[in-house]
Amino acid sequence: MSSSRSHSGGSRRWNYFHSALELAIQRSAHKWKFEDFAECFPQYVEEDKDGAMQTFNQVADYIETATKRDLENVFKEYDLQNNVDILDKMVSEAKARKASGKIGPNVWTVNLHPRSAVCGRTIPILEAQAERLRETLAELDAEDVALASELEGKVGEIKDLETRANCVLDQVDETLEAWSNLSMEEIEAWSASIIETTTPLLRS
Known about the structure:
InterPro entries: PMF1/Nnf1. By secondary structure, the chain is mainly α. The chain has 7 helices and no strands. 83% of the residues lie in helices and 0% in strands. The radius of gyration is 41 Å and the shape is elongated.
């Protein structure tokens, strides 16, 4: 926005607006003084005042450059210079008609309803925004589908593990029930059988 090309070919109204905006950006970016910077970073300034001064200037320059760049993008998106030039032409012609005494109907809106004029400007912008939102929504839907598929896989694994765990628990319950139904004689006989079976192994 700081280039002279932004001014070339523009109307006087645009040049005034552009220059005033540049001045406002410069003042805003450099409104913060080095003394303020030093109060925020006293140790840095005390240890390296020259480096701190350089950093301070770089930050101010970056703020100014970034602000101008962002505004330039806004100007391009909305074709601001062209619209301001059109406005300037309309005002100049209106003043000329008034000075000549030939005040007639507004030639800029002949057979054009104000609502139609507004819609002609705003609808394309709204449609572009709606398209971006639709694209974002489609991306989110795709992510949801992928997450749902992954979740279904996890649920299947969990159900399989639950089934296996239930089988093991059922077997444990059956074993405990069978053990609790054994008589003392059967338990003693089983214990003796185990001892007889394992004794040769222990001796060897």
